[in-house]
Amino acid sequence: MSSQTTSEPAQSAQDIPLVIAGREFRSRLIVGTGKYRTNDEMIRAIDASGADMVTVAVRRVDLDRTKEEGILYHLDPERYFLLPNTAGCYTADEAIRYARLGRAAGMNEWVKLEVIGDQRTLLPDVVATVEAAKVLVAEGFKVLAYTSEDVITALRLEDAGCAAVMPLASPIGSGLGLVNPYFIREIKTRLECPVIVDAGVGTASDACLTMEQGVDGILMNTALAEARDPVRMATAMRLGVQAGRLAYLAGRMPRREVAVPSSPVAGMLD
Amino acid sequence: MSSQTTSEPAQSAQDIPLVIAGREFRSRLIVGTGKYRTNDEMIRAIDASGADMVTVAVRRVDLDRTKEEGILYHLDPERYFLLPNTAGCYTADEAIRYARLGRAAGMNEWVKLEVIGDQRTLLPDVVATVEAAKVLVAEGFKVLAYTSEDVITALRLEDAGCAAVMPLASPIGSGLGLVNPYFIREIKTRLECPVIVDAGVGTASDACLTMEQGVDGILMNTALAEARDPVRMATAMRLGVQAGRLAYLAGRMPRREVAVPSSPVAGMLD
Amino acid sequence: MSSQTTSEPAQSAQDIPLVIAGREFRSRLIVGTGKYRTNDEMIRAIDASGADMVTVAVRRVDLDRTKEEGILYHLDPERYFLLPNTAGCYTADEAIRYARLGRAAGMNEWVKLEVIGDQRTLLPDVVATVEAAKVLVAEGFKVLAYTSEDVITALRLEDAGCAAVMPLASPIGSGLGLVNPYFIREIKTRLECPVIVDAGVGTASDACLTMEQGVDGILMNTALAEARDPVRMATAMRLGVQAGRLAYLAGRMPRREVAVPSSPVAGMLD
Amino acid sequence: MSSQTTSEPAQSAQDIPLVIAGREFRSRLIVGTGKYRTNDEMIRAIDASGADMVTVAVRRVDLDRTKEEGILYHLDPERYFLLPNTAGCYTADEAIRYARLGRAAGMNEWVKLEVIGDQRTLLPDVVATVEAAKVLVAEGFKVLAYTSEDVITALRLEDAGCAAVMPLASPIGSGLGLVNPYFIREIKTRLECPVIVDAGVGTASDACLTMEQGVDGILMNTALAEARDPVRMATAMRLGVQAGRLAYLAGRMPRREVAVPSSPVAGMLD
Amino acid sequence: MITVTVNGEERQLEAGVTVAGLLGALGLHPRLVVVEHNREILDAGDLEDTEIQAGDNVELVHFVGGG
Amino acid sequence: MITVTVNGEERQLEAGVTVAGLLGALGLHPRLVVVEHNREILDAGDLEDTEIQAGDNVELVHFVGGG
Amino acid sequence: MITVTVNGEERQLEAGVTVAGLLGALGLHPRLVVVEHNREILDAGDLEDTEIQAGDNVELVHFVGGG
Amino acid sequence: MITVTVNGEERQLEAGVTVAGLLGALGLHPRLVVVEHNREILDAGDLEDTEIQAGDNVELVHFVGGG
User: Fold this and answer.
1) CA D248 → CA A251, C49, F7, distances in Å?
2) pLDDT tens across E14-44, in order?
3) I need a surface site. Which of B136, B140, C59, E26 has the fewest CB within 10 A?
4) pLDDT at residue number G61
5) Is residue A204 classed exposed, middle or buried when 0-12, 13-18 and 19+ CB atoms within 10 A define those classes?
6) Which pLDDT belongs to residue B72?
7) Residue A232 Cα distances to A206, A235, C114, D25, angstroms
8) Inter-chain contact H65–D106, Cβ cutoff 8 Å?
9) Interface ipTM above 0.95
């Protein structure tokens, strides 16, 4: 029994599935396929994560080592919905080019749109992202757009027709966790399309806290690939995402600065 | 299929069980039985929590409403290991008296020792707690001692022969979460007996973050009983505790203030 | 002796003055003039703050209560450098119109540029802000631009020729303090022009912590006007800004999770 | 003009002096004299800190380098009130012995009581501290007792007759800042004697935030001695303590998650 | 009749009543109650044999919900 | 009489009135007000010479407290 | 022989070679590669018919691991 | 000669030496040192009169930098 299936009862019993662009996903955790030490470790980690959507990048075939296999050798497209990204693109045109190549390489019209504005922070160029989103939506793409925690940009990406808006928790690969819960919460409050937090989550409590803000899902890669034990961390993230989601739906107790006993004060002996 | 069972594969596959005083527990989450709106809600929440040890209080039988049932009508002692507490006691003698009554009422020699020092904060009287622990250990009790986040008191409780030491995350019923991770981590580092964080956890991310400090388990009550939906929150807590435990075992990625791409920088098109 | 002068020795002895667009300012704290309960309280608070630059808004004269005095009746332009803002403008054109009116009403070509993108968060429309900045710089304005904590927008505002870039600590009037120190620090690292944190500071420790990130100054209004005692809070802010600035220059001790004694371990008695 | 004097107007105008055991102090910042790189740097830092009470340790005279001067060569007892500590003592008896030696060496009956319980954390042995406090108070000492953030121990130290209770912000020399504001606030609320936060402050914003909790003062050493520039940091701490104190007295604005404009919404142009 | 204190309240009982008798009169099943008689906890086996004297203090406790 | 818009409100003015005249009638000191006449900002020097025509839009602004 | 650019590197190919031919020569299975020919993405069906001319730019890409 | 312990180290002193004499021999100014003689703190006034016996324990302390 694969560990991935173990949480479905809880999931199905107490939550509704994630729906993006009319497609239903079993898991609210979406994972990347980069930076793993080995392909085998990647496969086992993705299995443990329970993700049914995984991101991939579009790159040149290495002509010198033609025996080298692309990612498709490792991921069963029957099982995993592949989401091509435009990582590494610094202009709208470049991102659009990569999106089209991704569509040709894959089996769907979905794209994780990234237009990077700065090499050191890998923060998005929000102007170019909105511009590219409009073009790709017009071409029939389902655009999931990586963006900053800026509420206004998020609103514009929704207006541009994005299928999902994906604000960052903190910079890509930083592991700093959810730095600005206020803006993430505000984005979720203001948008109607799904909000997926993308980038910055470092450990399970980050994922749990992020889901507790009410967002629809989380996309991560480095937190799994760079964990000492990626498979165990993937299980932790699967459970942490579900935990945060259910805690959000359950409605937490109030915070108080004065203590309140858990046992009855009445009925004490003399 | 009870939701509780859904996570066991992950659990058993990737973690060792919690062992206190030679007894093995399937769950690292221990829950209280106080303050629920109804007994039915309590039963369903405890089931969802996956806990196999639950705490109970010792109080006078209400002679005026003798049809009133004690907690034993609701909790199957075959399924749940009952841990009597000394909640509400303000002196060592009083706590010792309640511990003995709890032993007579229950089927085991275990006690959750609480000696409260102050009504407003419900913080422990650490001096009286150590004193009572010594007496009870000498009488053959397995003492799980509620205490502050003071490392030195924790060391003394271990020296006194406690089966487990249970520092608080924040005051009982406050829901403020893990206020002092440094001291909790230090207590775990310094003690050999199990460290169970007791009190203060408010939501799933608190539980997850607490377990990520490396402690052996968490005891909670108010966070479930006072959630808008205790059953869903109990599931969230079960998953959150497992997530934090596995993330601790997995070893998180390093934090960085500079971004690192998840997709290859090589192989970009011209 | 005005309380404002009391800190100058420390200031002058241990720090360099703030210079924006070639103009030297004695204080790194810039304050607004809105929302005070009375004009007298405003005057005393601004005096206590030590600020030598204050912001003002441009609004219609109230023709029905012509005895009503403009702000110039209360602020001595010899003592305070007036910085007109474009608060309340939602488009580049509107902001440009207000900037020109401010220039005509004032004695300088400086403007605090604000182009709001959303009424609920008062977050900037970064695209329109950059656009307006370019126009105003071309007209010879010294533009101090309110912006989000987005590093890339900050870089573009500097490229556009802004005299200072003013990222927010948190939303205007929220008092949430410095939510994203990472991005504020990154903005300061990447820009050459002065970086003034504008909006969100709620109390003195917020101001102190913000200055410790290395930024050049802070602009605030609500934290003073809405304090129970604005004059005392203004003194607190003046001191807090200096404290944070000097702590930044002094270079703090390292953080450690293990204690280190302050008194010698040698020379103890037997 | 010594930088120390520069803040007195603000201070005297807007705050009352700190009074401990009937003695008035100009500064709410108390500093240690340990770990400075040079005596000259120590003197200048203490001057800049504005402190009028400084702590000293009691140690053996070094008989091999008799030209070596004690601290009294460097600190003018006319200007600084010397507070001997019992640092390094691990039992009540040892601390009492050092307190008596300190009294014989100094000009007063004051002592900073420290009874350490653990070498790694330097956390207090709260039981032994209370015991030693009772003995020393009976001998006529003015006892300022270093303790943990435990509210109950703090109450007992006050009952024991301590002149001031000094809970830690975080471990001695750690620079982790104020870890548990709730308990520090509660201690201040519950005690009548002065509450001085001792140990753990790392930079000016820590000092400011700590004073904003309402405590009466702060005692620090490492944060100054280990700063890259102790004199500048001492000025920063002096200002930060005043800033936090005045912000506490001023009463901060409310926190809000929705923005509120600082400029009038009325009077906009068409 | 004798006067005893049960769970903090004075009650009139017939002289010579046993603890088991008291439980019966109160409709409490012995297996669900712990009896503390003059600060001594009674074993189930002693309930029948333990006679309540005037002035005795009896506490009848059980488990309730608590954290 | 002509109808003009001043600060968003319609007003009746005598034909031929200048901006300076309007300010005077409103009791506003020219040095404390900025005049935007049909979207053009007027220099202080032009207030006397600028005649207000029917349908003109005049905005009279000044500095107020703001952050 | 003609000179073309494949994945950024100049290569000598026989005149008249098709894209399908190129893939074959490189040992690349057409179904696992996407071909961009002079900035135009080729459908699988066109690989046989598309002849490579001197100076053409050919990009051969596929999916790799990424986040 | 007698053997005494001063600040934890054994020293040979002439019989009959006083504490004041010891301080002098060590070049220590009495006003800058506190003397603990066999666990008793000496008043400045007693330094002259206090004779050190064989086996005595003398601690000489002062203030040093500390936090």
Assistant:
1) 33, 16, 44
2) 998 999 999 999 888 888 899 999 999 999 8
3) B140
4) 94
5) buried
6) 76
7) 16, 5, 48, 57
8) no
9) no
DSSP D243-258: HHHHHHHH-PPPP-SS
Dihedral of the CA atoms A35, A40, A41, A44 (nearest 10)?
Answer: 120
Percentage helix, strand, coil for chain G under 3-state DSSP, each rounded to 5: 20, 40, 40
Q: What residue type is B193 in one-letter code?
A: C
Contact A172, A222 (CB under 8 A): yes
Mean pLDDT, chain C, whole residue set: 91
Percent of chain F whose pLDDT exceeds 70: 100
Neighbouring C-beta atoms of residue D188, cutoff 10 Å: 18
CB-CB neighbours of H5 under 10 Å:
15
pLDDT above 50: residue D6? no
Q: Are A245 and A214 in contact (CB under 8 A)?
A: no
DSSP A67: T
Residue D112 CA to residue D145 CA, distance in Å, equals 6
Residue D74 is predicted with a pLDDT of 85
Identify the residue whose tokens are 């001594």: E40
Kindly report the nearest CA distance between residue A182 and chain D, in angstroms: 7
Outline where chain D has alpha helix (H): 8-14, 39-49, 92-105, 126-138, 151-159, 181-190, 204-211, 222-225, 230-250
Using CA coordinates, name the residue in chain G closest to A42.
G65
- Is residue C73 predicted with pLDDT exceeding 90? no
> Considering only CA atoms, which of H67, H57, H60 is closest in space to residue H20?
H60
Residues contacting residue A129 through CB under 8 Å, at least 6 positions apart: A92, A95, A113, A114, A115, A145, A146, A147, A153, A157
From the centroid of its chain, how far is CA B17? 15
Residues of chain C contacting H61 with CB distance shorter than 8 Å: 269
Distance CA C136, CA C109 (A): 10
How many CB atoms neighbour CB C80 within 10 A?
18
Probe site for chain G from B253, B268, B270 (most G CB atoms < 10 A): B270
Is some CB atom of chain A closer than 8 A to the CB atom of G33?
Answer: yes
- Whole-Å CA distances, D37 to A47, D33, D67, D174, D227: 57, 11, 19, 18, 10
**Under-70 pLDDT residues of chain B:** 1-13, 65-69
User: Residue A66 carries which DSSP code?
Assistant: T
pLDDT at D68: 58
3-state secondary structure of D151: helix
Query: CA–CA separation, C48 vs C54, rounded Å?
Result: 13
Predicted local distance difference test score (pLDDT) of residue A68: 59
Q: Average pLDDT for residues D73-87, to the nearest whole number?
A: 91
Chain C: give the shortest CA distance to residue B203, in Å.
Answer: 22
Indicate which residue of C35, C112, C134, C188 is catalytic: C112
Report the C-alpha gap between A19 and C60 in whole angstroms: 50
Other C-beta atoms lying within 10 Å of the C-beta of residue F45: 8
- The residue written with tokens 């539980």 in the block is B207
Task: Report the run of H or E that residue B210 belongs to, with start and end.
Answer: helix B204-211
Longest dimension (CA), chain D: 87
Q: What gap in Å lies between CA C119 and CA A130, rounded to an integer?
A: 21
List chain D residues with CB under 8 Å of A186: 257
Give the predicted TM-score (pTM) of the model. 0.91
What is the DSSP-derived secondary structure letter of residue E38?
T
pLDDT at H51 over 70: yes
Q: Residue C13 has what pLDDT? A: 64
Strands (E) in chain H, as ranges, are: 2-6, 9-13, 34-37, 40-41, 57-65
- Counting as contact any 3 or more CB pairs under 8 A, the partners of A are B, C, D, E, G
Q: Which residues contact B150 (CB under 8 A, 6 or more apart)?
A: B126, B167, B183, D123, D126, D148, D150
pLDDT above 60: residue D4:
no
